[in-house]
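FAQ: What does the model actually see?

It sees only this:
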Amino acid sequence: MKNTGYILILLLAACLPILWMGCTRPSTAELPDDPTSLANFRDVIIEHLDLDLTVDFSARTLSGTAVLHLDNITGTDRLILDTQDLIIQRVTRGEESAPVDYRLGEAVQYYGRPFIIPITPETERVTVEYTTSPDAPALQWVVPEQTASKSSPLLYSQSQFILARSWIPCQDTPAVRMTYSAVIRTSPEYLAVMSAINPQSKNNSGVYHFKMPQPIPSYLLALGVGDLEFEEIGPRSGVYAEPPVVDRAAWEFAETEQMIRVAEKLYGPYLWERYDMLILPPSFPFGGMENPRLTFVTPTILGGDRSLVDLIAHELAHSWSGNLVTNATWNDFWLNEGFTVYFEHRIMESIRGKRFAEMLSELSYHDLEQTVEELGPDNPDTALKPDLAGRDPEAAYSSIPYVKGFFFLKMLEEQFGRETWDHFLGMYFQQFRFRSVSTEQFEEYLTGTLLSNDQQLKEELRIDEWLYRPGIPGNIPVVESGELTRVERAAGSFTNGGNPARIDTTGWTSHHYIHFLQQLPDSLGVDRLKALDDTFGFTTTDDTPLLRVWLPLAIRSGYQPAFPRMETFLTSVGRVYLIEPVYTALAQTEHGLQEARRIYREAQPLYHAMARNAIERVLETSG
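And it is asked to produce this:
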């Protein structure tokens, strides 16, 4: 297929770029309904947020004020905000000092309580004095024993999906973007950092000032406070971490500037000035969280060999897909994650080569097949756009938006050619930057540009099936990796009685070993697992993604030498992706379920609320 005509169409589509400074705000008609928000953001919008919060480690609270600067689009007489367990002390309006009456509506399962404040058509500012609950699910108060230093506590926030409302009264929907500034007050022995322009060292006052000049949705509001140090790793990147970790993290992520340059070459300039990373304790529930200017990162990828830095490529890619162009609702989550997985693979292809990228793609395909098999091919949650009305977005979380979204975009790349496809993506990020987009808006843009409004081509590519129907479409790209073929031959040889010491693992990374283990039978004899363990040291490895696969195999096979490591692992790591499969394997037998519950009781204080929810679902389902 010739690309010239398509590229011309895309260039024409770029003639009206939308800049974040002074850009026209979408009309209320463009704002989608968000079933996970109780706010009236279609009537009145928060344009800017001013925070002034004091950190109290002993009480496990944040307290202070949130000043909300409003655009009352429809002239409504009330502002409705999202809240969860906030203790409201006082509300004032505009320049008035007298408090106004407000009320908290009835609690709605999963979504908190609507916070209803009377305003006038002329109201431009509302000030809320409040304190967070010690159990706010967005805030993890890490005790000294659970930190790397073992001497100082640490606080971090995790606002995605709908947890920002538990530490800030806000319109907790990705449809609304706002700028913000903040003053964070803490002890001088700690450094505070946010998803904003950050300090790089402690001061004597413990008072830190922040500014985020680009508009962001509420789920990207982020805060970290603790005994942190900063180390520069590039002209616009660095790492924040506890003193025992900072040098190791700086070495591990030394390729970050190279990744930024590759990403810019692909899809346009990096528009957030700096890309820094905060390395958190092992309790952090995600691999990474793409908070703008300051990605939050799990320490479980500090393998000492840079083999797991594709996670950093993923979080960096979010600076375009997610932070720059954001899913309008959590029903549209694939617009964040599917694009980001595709972008991540392109970055890694440039840095590690095509064979490595092909391996990532085939691994993604196996992940998609497994997820669809587990959920069921007719399960509506296997559509790229599910329906989360009345549901907790966490409960519907799976790899579907990531890997099915990736393969949808890869299918389009193969259909139109990489050159045309890259032009389309570049124009998409340009056209919609600093805006929130729904699946329907993306579909309309895709149809009007890349597809040239060709309805027959749209049907041939099964666009509707990809976006709105469950299962795996028949035109999914076929991916074959020579790297994985080699691994699968090794696994087959071992399964048939081969000696693991004779396996040629030259050039193997963590991904190779994980795929090797995934090709083995669900359970093996204890002698066979011992042979593997003696050869490769799986039980004693610090490679946590590998343990995610090895420990369930050991549990199913009754390989007792791995059980102490399993318990240590579950009581020291809180990343849901890593621990959920281990709990699931334990919970599949009556004795194992009892063990899982015992270990969970011990580990529960370590876990973030998101991890607790995930593990409790496993234990309740198994019970």
